[in-house]
Amino acid sequence: MVRVLLRGGGLVVVGGVLLVLVVLSVGVGVKGVSWGEVWRALWGDDGSYAAGVVRELRVPRTMVGLLAGAALGVAGALMQTLTRNPLADPGLLGVNAGASAAVVFAIGFLGVGSFLSLVWFSFAGAALASVVVYVLGASGRGGPTPVRLALAGAAVSASLGGLIAGLTVFDAATYDYLRFWMVGSLAGRRPELVGELAPFVGVGLVLALLLARSLNSLALGEELGRGLGVHVARTRLGTVVAVTLLCGAATAAAGPIGFVGLVIPLVARWLAGPDLRWSLPYCILLAPVLLLGADIVGRLVLPEGELEVGAVTALIGAPVFIAMVRRRKEVSL
Amino acid sequence: MTAARVSAPTEPESASTAGPAGSAAGGVKAAGGMWSLRWRGVSMRVHRRTAWVCAWCLAFAGVLLVVSLCTGAYAVAPAQVARALFFGTGDRLAVFFVTQERLPQALLALLVGCALGVSGAVFQNLSRNPLASPDVIGFNSGAATGAIAVLVVGGSSAQVAVGAIGGGLATAAVVFLLASRGGLHGVRLVLIGLGVTAMLGSVNSYLLTRSTLHNAQNAHIWLIGTLSGRSWGAVQVMAVALAVLLPVSVVMGRRLRMLEMGDDLARGLGVGVGRSRLVLTVLGVGLCAVAVASAGPVPFVALAAPQIAMLVARSPGVSLMAAGASGALLLSAAHLVSNQVLHLFARLQLVDDTQQDSQLPVGVTTAVLGGVYLAWVLFRRRRTTV
Fold this sequence. Notes:
- Chain A: It holds the Pfam family FecCD.
- Chain A: Belongs to the binding-protein-dependent transport system permease family. FecCD subfamily.
- Chain A: Its main location: membrane.
- Chain A: It is found in: Cell membrane.
- The structure holds two protein chains of two kinds.
- Chain A is mostly helical.
- Chain A has one domain (56-327): ABC transporter involved in vitamin B12 uptake, BtuC.
- Chain A is 76% helix and 0% strand.
- Chain A has 13 helices and no strands.
- In chain A, helix 1 runs parallel beside helix 12 (276-300), helix 3 crosses helix 11 (260-272) and helix 12 crosses helix 13.
- The radius of gyration of chain A is 20 Å and the shape is globular.
- In chain A, 56% of the residues are buried.
- By secondary structure, chain B is mostly helical.
- Chain B has a single domain, classed as ABC transporter involved in vitamin B12 uptake, BtuC.
- Chain B has a three-stranded antiparallel sheet.
- In chain B, helix 3 (92-127) crosses helix 12.
- The radius of gyration of chain B is 22 Å and the shape is globular.
- At the A-B interface, helix 6, helix 7, helix 11 and helix 13 of A face helix 6, helix 7, helix 11 and helix 13 of B.
């Protein structure tokens, strides 16, 4: 009972922090807009400069940050549980490599010239790569075992990464695009993007929460999970689908942002314990806290211009993470 | 939640695949898939199939080395190669290409591959995680930061190597200091390495977006890993480093076996756990450092070589020597393919003719080939669980 209260209370605290960050994310920025103007702009578009900044730039940016953050955090937790490997990150299924390869292909061969039209390419690339990884990983007798999935992911990621590197060595223009896409950013997203990506993230999150119970049992080992009535193959397939939806959407929206999906699940597990029904909600709230916090800092830290969120997440998150690791007496994965 | 174990389930050795079976002459005794070597009171048990894998890998790598001496943009007949090598006579262009470009680069591929393979095996054993590579303690990303910082201001290749080693060692030292509270704990080391790696990754991608395209492109090529433009100096450095570090790793390989059984059991067997782990980590970092300084952070060799060696040798754990041999073979093959593939690209008009003379970075090939090979191994072994 006390544990439930503690966990629930922790969730409320994290939710409060997230709320503060959402407010800051809408209210703070390079363009000087007062809080009063922000408030008015939120309730109606009066055609003013402030309304343009808030409605066209900051609100979409904040929403994309919320969606992408939650998606990355949960995708990471699923991936680590599925492969039973705490070093697994959502990119391990080949999602990031697939998305990057599609972006390079779109720019280099199809001449797609703007970031915004790349979204669907990267989503398609991510989906395709993770299907290949799953088929390869599931081809064994025992179905998609953790180690096979991890190795298949490493194989596909490496091959695609090599292809990308090979193509960009000889194509400076494509590399020029790629190096900016690779950093990961929330800035300059179309307002419509939020509506387009929300369904994918929504379905992924619901699927993840539905799978939490089965994954809990499966984490005890395949035999024990089966004994507890879990349909092993179906659970694993569902998890891969969820990771693809979540991570593909996040990568398409913001580029391959690292660290969040790797570390947030570990932190969530320390705070909430190994039960996914608790740690997934923590991930959903903690990951956007990191992403939005990093985005806000990135807007303020430079005297001129902004720092991309992908360059800031780890700079902020890693020291906190390292301090947490050092404070714990018995570190277990 | 426990980390996935490195070791595959031991399979009973079938007599038909085990090479010359039965009692061998001298101090070699075969039993249970192992050879016991005895010589003046020193005895050693060698996993039979692993020894064969080592021998085959090195033999193949030797063949590839010879082939790579003969082929390239300027083809040289084997007889001419021999003459150029042993007497330094014949076509002057051929002598130059063979002795000053192809031989040092092919040797460097062998040595760097070996170093990366052993280093990867050390870290995969230490962290008991098949996804671990020297990068888990942040070495590669620190080296990359050092190198990019030098490249962004336009430094020479020797300065880049120094920057890479400096950055890598500094990072490894920081990770160690942060992790060493209350003894060197394997898991804590990995987690802190992850954090530091992620931070440096951010710095790297930031530096790349803020430099000129030309400098970023140079850094990009270095980051892929390349052997082009390397000469005898790099080979000498690598050879000396390996001559020192490989014997140490043979000795320490046995400690690894014991550490694999768990800290408590190893302690019970008289192994100084903390000190062994420190020595092994320094060994892994050292091997990785010299490799990265000579060829850049060539991807995938450190990750895949130990796993491939283990899958082929069907040994119960990762053997350092087999990992080194398979790493050497992997990188030699990748080097050969890299040299050929650009002509193919030019013929298919994927790159324009002016770029024919430049080399494809070997890292491109290791990633693609290694990935495809690993996928193939996985597919072929679909009847087993791993």
